Sequence to fold (308 residues):
Amino acid sequence: MNRIQQETDLPERVKIVEVGPRDGLQNESATVPLEVKVGLIERLGAAGLPAIETGSFVSPKWVPQMADSDRVYGAIRKRAGVGYPVLVPNSRGLAGALKAGVQEVAVFAAASESFTRKNINSTIDESLERYRSVVAEALDSGLRVRGYVSCVLGCPYEGAITPDAVARVAGQLDSMGCYEISLGDTIGAGTPRDARDMIRVVSERIPVQRLAAHFHDTYGQGLANVLAVLQEGVSVVDGSVSGLGGCPYAKGATGNLATEDLLYMLDGMGIKTGVDMGRLLDAGRFICEHLGRRPVSRVGQARWVRKD
Ligand code: HMG
Ligand code: MG
Fold:
């Protein structure tokens, strides 16, 4: 353990969950071809990411970009030891995921009533009731289930959200049997002290080892927020390659914290991840070239100009 880790009690190892192929692409209006999605996921696997969210089994009327998630899942060469979760909003989604042979699903709730209505067309309590049976069936079928709580540091429709509201929803997902709860700052508006306080309240109900952080980077607070929650004991962090994405039901919110920037910070601090920067940058270049876009990640931009 080096000096900075001892001083601030940082974890020695962080698990990065790559959400780019799902959270990153779900907001793209032009259809991304199946082979590009598969190419992206395989490059991310080659970079050493231990978990890669490959898609979602949601209504194609709501999120058309994810309509081919079953075929994407079927086409990727799965690497041993890598998790390939998909999102499911209901039993129909779970049935599709099971048919596709998926081994891990994620259910997604929110701490805001308005966002829940816009995103999954129900109240918070209705969504939790539905998830209780979806999670039970998924566990019975031998799947691992991750839970998400959105709007943990603010809602695009309601503004401030209390840590207690987050803890209530997170606690319910935990009681259903989710192995981990990913806490999403959907609109990327939170700042480090709020992130820290929210984690402190939620970890009174759920051991911090079972919490993950999912920061969108709309206001440039992502890395600072990550550092704040690492200091609270969080050791699982979601990222999106090249900072792609956003939620179609959170207008104005940009992509997740870029995985490249997250990795740069963790590498620099001597925190192990098992992820290779060069290969991660390859994956980012691949998808950005397809989308005709320069990377949003700062590391990607620095390396893009220098072409190394
Ligand atoms: P609804 O319209 O209330 O549901 O949508 P419904 O049961 O009335 O069904 C409507 C139509 O969709 C029907 O088709 C269903 O069959 C079909 P029709 O009869 O009209 O032809 N349908 C489905 N089709 C395929 N797969 C399914 C499915 N379910 C119904 N699973 C529903 C309710 C939940 C389905 C809808 O609101 C939905 O799909 N929402 C998903 C929204 C979404 O994916 N948002 C982005 C992910 S969340 C996120 O990004 C946040 C996160 O990153 C964390 C953070 O950043 O905070 C996770
Ligand atoms: Mg998200």
Observations:
- The chain has 13 helices and nine strands.
- The chain has one domain: 3-302.
- The radius of gyration is 18 Å.
